[in-house]
Design brief:
By secondary structure, the protein is of the alpha+beta class. It contains 15 helices and 28 strands.
């Protein structure tokens, strides 16, 4: 299948719900079609890739005979079990979709329940391994329908009779009130025999118990606890349970501009997310998850400091080579479709600050550390001493020239600041470096205040000598570089509002200004930056404005409480990969800050 198909009609990004077994994830559209599924891991090749092409690239859907009158959906309480109810002229059916937290083999289970009347459904199962490119060999064996190609195999087990039609598996069957008809699709390595059948109803009960037990650990407080809980469930769903790594999103190549080239693979773990994620988990009472994330972080960066990357695979893999998939037309013809991410090879100063900050905040929260952990941190600091003055690609991973980005230098300051505090706190052996780190911290601070601050704008700007604004400078008060009541901070926040607000939300920067990112086109407003602005407004005493912005951000969530990376306020639709961990982390942390909970992220980082 090397022909590129044209995706004539796609569901909007906000029309998808998210399923997860805490090792991989699926996206299910509002009409109940599974259009994205990678097995056995988040970063594996997709077996359903209709999201980035057409249905011929793989999907699984049930269509009622006759016209649909009404369709609604919800998660079952605080779980990732999705219910989609479809009402037709003949009756009503309910699709119950979930992925049981797994043992060895991943499953996606769909139970069709008859609610009213009698409804005729047609099922189409189109399996295409390797991102929609490989048509499998299908045969009946082991009590099910097996699809095999290369290293991958799937087996469908259901009491419904199926048959082949035009390289897809189809079935037509009736569902009457009280029926509960299971469909269980299980992945396994093609060189092995398929696992024993899964009992769908037992798996549903176990999955419900798993999520309810996990959600009960949430320390509920504040006015937005339901939104926070849904965001925490999403973060847990984006966690690769065997290692504790948290992927940035479940998808690749959902565009930042419809029809544009800003299409990236987010199914990896970014060091930059470390501190934000740690605060979100610790603030909600999830110490075990925070500990697992910190341990993933320490394992991933182990080795030579000169080889630290900005992102890694879910098990700490370093090789994330970027390539394009020409047979996929892209979401709404947004090309190219990419897998892997070349930004893994970039030099970004800020990640050193994020790593040191995360480890310091973990220490403050009582997470144990070892001498080996400290030696690793010391090695990172010694390397940073020789590199902090170098230009880099910055927080936004620009594909233009390296520059002395203001945010990058601030995060280098954070690295030395947190190291000094950690040595003072726990009497770590600094090998005589403590005084040198103090002097470096002060030197970086002076340099940023001199070269990163634009007096004409009364604001810190994107990079030294620039007059362009960048939302990353909102981090200055949040990390404690300067206090919120400093006139320069207030001026910076006002400049961000003046130059980067678009319909009430925050752009990262203006891509066409200075051609800083080396890419054509534009993008939507960046939701994590909008949460940062809410935090900053709260810290400078504009609490009403902060709350109004936060409430507007909450209103952007789709009907099942999910957020993407970006939003188009003109066309009122999501942009970018989905669901986006960074956006949900921002929601959790801002909710804690605005509700003035003790230990809120913004207050803790700034202290």
């Amino acid at each position: 299948m090397n022909k590129r198909h044209t995706n004539i009609k796609s569901a909007r990004i906000e029309d998808y719900a998210f399923l997860s077994d805490t090792q991989s994830g699926a996206l299910v559209s509002r009409n109940g079609s599974v259009d994205w599924l990678c097995l056995p891991r988040f970063d594996s090749g997709a077996c359903f890739a209709a999201l980035l092409g057409g249905k011929e690239n793989g999907c699984w859907h049930f269509t009622p005979k006759g016209k649909t009158k009404k369709c609604s959906r919800r998660y079952q309480g605080d779980t990732l079990i999705l219910e989609t109810e479809v009402q037709t002229a003949d009756g009503t059916v309910r699709f119950i979709d979930f992925m049981p937290p797994r043992g060895t083999n991943p499953d996606i289970i769909r139970i069709i329940e008859g609610v009213e009347g009698k409804v005729t459904l047609r099922m189409e199962l189109i399996i295409r391994f390797d991102y929609g490119s490989v048509v499998p060999w299908v045969r009946r064996r082991h009590g099910g329908l097996e699809a095999i190609a290369g290293p991958d195999a799937l087996i469908l087990r259901t009491p419904v009779e199926t048959h082949g039609e035009d390289l897809k598996t189809v079935a037509e069957f009736k569902v009457t009130k009280g029926d509960r008809i299971p469909f269980v699709l299980t992945w396994y390595p093609s060189h092995e025999s398929p696992p024993k059948p899964v009992r769908a109803e037992s798996a549903l009960s176990d999955t419900k118990s798993y999520w309810r037990e996990w959600s009960r650990r949430f320390e509920r407080a504040g006015p937005w606890q339901d939104a926070v809980m849904r965001s925490l469930l999403t973060l847990k769903g984006l966690t690769y349970a065997p290692t504790g790594g948290i992927v940035a999103a479940a998808t690749t190549s959902l565009p930042e501009q419809i029809g544009g080239v800003r299409n990236w693979d987010y199914r990896f773990c970014w060091l930059r997310d470390a501190t934000f994620t740690l605060f979100a988990l610790l603030g909600a009472g999830y110490q075990d998850e925070a500990r697992a994330w910190r341990e993933w972080l320490l394992r991933a960066i182990a080795g030579s400091p000169s080889q630290v990357q900005i992102m890694y695979g879910v098990s700490g893999e370093r090789r994330l080579e970027e390539r394009e998939l020409p047979w996929l037309s892209g979401y709404e013809n947004s090309q190219p479709v990419r897998v892997g991410n070349a930004a893994a090879g970039q030099f970004q100063l800020d990640v050193f600050g994020e790593v040191l900050d995360a480890i310091y905040q973990a220490h403050r929260s009582g997470l144990e550390s070892s001498d080996a952990d400290w030696r690793l941190q010391a090695a990172l600091l010694h390397f940073l001493e020789t590199r902090w003055e170098k230009p880099d690609e910055g927080i936004w991973e620009v594909r233009g020239p390296r520059r002395p980005f203001t945010h990058s230098k601030v995060m280098a300051w954070v690295a030395f600041d947190r190291a000094v505090k950690l040595v003072e706190d726990c009497q770590c052996d600094s090998d005589g470096s403590l005084e040198r780190w103090r002097k470096l911290r002060d030197k970086i601070h002076r340099q940023v205040c001199t070269r990163g601050f634009n007096k004409k704008k009364n604001a810190f700007t994107q990079f030294y000598g620039s007059d362009a604004m960048d939302a990353s400078v909102l981090m200055l008060p949040l990390v404690g570089f300067l206090p919120p009541n400093d006139k320069r901070i207030r001026g910076t926040i006002e400049a961000v509002e003046r130059e980067l607000l678009q319909d009430g939300f925050v752009l990262r920067y203006r891509p066409n200004e200075k051609k800083v990112d080396g890419l054509p086109g534009s993008e939507g407003v960046f939701l994590p930056c909008s949460f940062w602005l809410a935090d900053c407004l709260h810290l400078i005493g504009r609490k009403g404005d902060a709350r109004m912005l936060f409430e507007r951000l909450l209103a952007l969530r789709n009907d099942v409480g999910l957020l993407a990376e970006e939003y188009d306020p003109k066309k009122k639709r999501f942009l970018g990969n989905f669901p986006q961990a960074f956006s949900h982390v921002g929601l959790v942390n801002s909710a804690q800050t605005l509700s003035e909970r003790p230990g809120a992220a913004a207050d803790q980082r700034a202290s």
